[in-house]
Amino acid sequence: MANITGAMPKPMHEKAKAGLQDIWMAATKKEAIVAFDLFVKTYGVKYERAVKKLTKDRDVLLTFYDFPAEHWKHIRTTSPIESVFATVRNRTRKTKGCLSRKTALAMVFKLMMSAKKKWRKLSGTNRLPEVIRGVEFKDGIKQLQNAA
Fold this sequence. Notes:
two-stranded antiparallel sheet, 148 residues, mainly alpha
């Protein structure tokens, strides 16, 4: 979202964010595509660079609709990655210059293991075997396989 709004003037950020949220918060892939096309139509002429950043990854951005709905909130967020690296970054800044490669790796490992204790468990863990087996999901709902 920041990459797209960053290519737009500041007064447009709030409206653009609302349009982007309409895409990834849609209940179905079909609704997301409609919101996606509306965003492109609304901002494409004036803010071509911003819209190009969005459209180049269209299929990848909408892939989460092919996973169980229970997993969507985990797929949509980057918080786990950001929070772990924020912990490591904050700590390593304070000890700058005092570390060898070996002690730095040990400290980073320990910090990540400590941060791991606070992570929220994955919702819908019972769906993981289905995802691994390649069971098809449409709009977060398991599709029944037709017997041939």
